[in-house]
Amino acid sequence: MLTRFAVRTHFVGLGFQARLGSQARLFHHSATHSKKAGKKAAKGKKADEEEIIELIDVKGYIQQATDHFDKTIELHKKNLNEVKSGASNPAIFDKLKVGKDGSKFTDLATTSTKGRNGLIVTVFDPKDTKLIVSTILAAGLNLNPERIPNNEQQLKISLPPPTTETRKQTCKQLKEIFEEYKNSANKNSLGHARSEILKELKKIDKKNDSVKKITQDLEKLHKDYITKLQDSLKQAEKSVLG
């Protein structure tokens, strides 16, 4: 008599799950770990048996880690560039709130660079110019916007040249960004992603060779991405120190 098999394929690493019907054929792969979930036979009925086998795609964890680590590298570089640019970053005012109603700065004006040591703020409506000036002065950025003659909608801002002290302070901020994305509670950090994946792998049979291999590959991958993070930091520091 044929035995019925209900096979449930569980791709944990990819977050995908499907259930196949009876009389399915199992194809085992070196990177796939199979685990028997149970076996039952009903009394007084046909001697058919149902066996559930859970297949776990352990290779999916490496792809999951790679995707997360790539995102971390991208965010790390973005934050380093913002800190490195400092006051010369045209996005420096974007998060400011304007007026009593807390309007977004970007809804009222836009900022662009002027040479290496200047910014130009263009106000969309001339009646908001005074409000924009007050907002920038009150932001504590030590920047003084000045109206461009015969133009009610544009402000020029001269940026002070960097000093040894400001360069050191910027490098300190760069290292703080590095530590945050290297190993912190931040969900986007390399350490956090590594920890979460290791927790999932520990739920599978530790003695399984595939799991051991994937764990080793994950550790190597994590180490490689830390090196990439360090390289980005060194480049940013070199740019700041000149």
Describe the protein.
One of its GO terms (biological process) is translation. Belongs to the RRF family. GO terms for molecular function: ribosomal large subunit binding. By secondary structure, the chain is an alpha+beta fold. It has three domains: 4-57, no CATH class; 60-85 and 163-241, Ribosome-recycling factor (Topoisomerase I, Chain A, domain 4); 88-158, Gyrase A, domain 2, CATH 3.30.1360. 44% of the residues lie in helices and 21% in strands. The chain is built from six helices and ten strands, in the order ββββαββαββαββααα. The strands form three sheets. A four-stranded mixed sheet has the order 2-1-4-3. A hairpin with a 6-residue loop joins strand 9 and strand 10 (154-158). Helix 4 runs antiparallel to helix 6 (209-241). The longest helix has 33 residues, at 209-241. The chain is elongated and about 75 Å long. Mean pLDDT is 80; it is low at 1-31 and 35-54.
Task: Based on the model shown, name its key terms.
single chain; about 240 residues; alpha+beta; Topoisomerase I, Chain A, domain 4; Gyrase A, domain 2; 3 domains; four-stranded mixed β-sheet; four-stranded antiparallel β-sheet; 6 helices; 10 strands; elongated; disordered N terminus
Furnish the topology, listing elements before pairings:
Blueprint: E1 4-11, E2 16-19, E3 32-40, E4 50-57, H1 59-85, E5 97-98, E6 103-104, H2 105-108, E7 109-113, E8 118-123, H3 129-138, E9 146-147, E10 154-158, H4 164-182, H5 190-202, H6 209-241
Parallel strand pairs: 1-4
Antiparallel strand pairs: 1-2, 3-4, 5-6, 7-8, 8-10, 9-10
Helix pairs in contact: 1-4, 1-5, 1-6, 4-6, 5-6
